[in-house]
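This week, study the protein below.
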Amino acid sequence: MKEFLQTKKEEMLLLLEKLVNIDSGSSHKEGIDEVGGILKELYEEIGFSVEVVHESVSGNNLVITYGENPSIIAVAHMDTVFKVGTAKERPFTIVGDQAYGPGVIDMKGSQVALLYAIKALKENNPKALESVQIILNGDEETGSETSRPIIEKYAKGKKYALIMEPARKDGSLVTARRGVGRYSVYVKGKATHSGIEPQNGISAIGELAHKIIKLHALTNHDEGVSVSVGLIEGGESVNTVAPTAAAHVDVRIRYAEQAELIDRKIREICSTSDVPGTKITLEGGINRPPMVKNEQTIELLEVIKEIGDGLGIKITDVSTGGGSDASFTSAIGIPTIDGLGPIGGNTHSEQEYLEIPSLVERTNLLAELIGRLSAEE
């Protein structure tokens, strides 16, 4: 399969360029659906059936199937974090052994790797295709609100989950992730002129300040819990007692059982006012459970290490605080490995890059892995 993929390297890079040069930020449905349309056609050319799950606001989700009873689910997202116009401002470029561009590693490189792993199997081990079902989703970067139910629906009954987030900068795979929560705190007070009649005002910003301190106090790094108010807004002018204010909160947890406790504490904090007369509205919750490195995960990792040894690739693994769709498959009890895409780094930034030699290498690893898991069936 590696020889086949080596002959396809330039073809892979051309597809990568095409995908990177399409703006597909999470809020740009047209761009995500354009990427989805290209990939749909390419998978259909191989013989897969593609169901398009249409969405009204976010990008459509694709369910891609070859056989009747697949035992492996692979998940790769089509959306990026970049605004419309970014692809034109800094299109796909190659400098030495690195490729650059918006979403090049997170995760358009993974889309190319997954497709060509399937192509390699079609050429060398076509029976293995019957074991694979693929979900391409359009809203991972914003929490997978529409795609989570789809991922969970098709993951049930599967024996393995392969998540196509990129490998880490050092090539490591991901075997554990922290759970993620998002909350928004909205406060209403009463506006008044801060110089003429400040005694008649009720400061929403003052109330929010109390809440921020209490929320941050929930952080316990030793237990893997972090609560961070990352964005605040409020007020109308510097000489007006603020009638409104809002805070947007990021929560990370290490264990599933921490979710209920931290959610309850956040709701308790926001249930009463510290500044009399203010009204508080809380929205949000824990939207991704933790991905836990359990015995099933370790067993699957050992299979990948064995394959890697045969290919001359030393496989290592890490835990990370970032969220991904791996949390959903892991939480319902499926052995899950993440970070199976190419190697790269500096995601979500202007310096995002992909290590070009890893494109063929990690595609080959993925193809061999699918082949091995399908043979076990």
The chain has two domains: 2-178+290-376, 179-288. The first helix runs from residue 2 to 7. The mean pLDDT is 97.
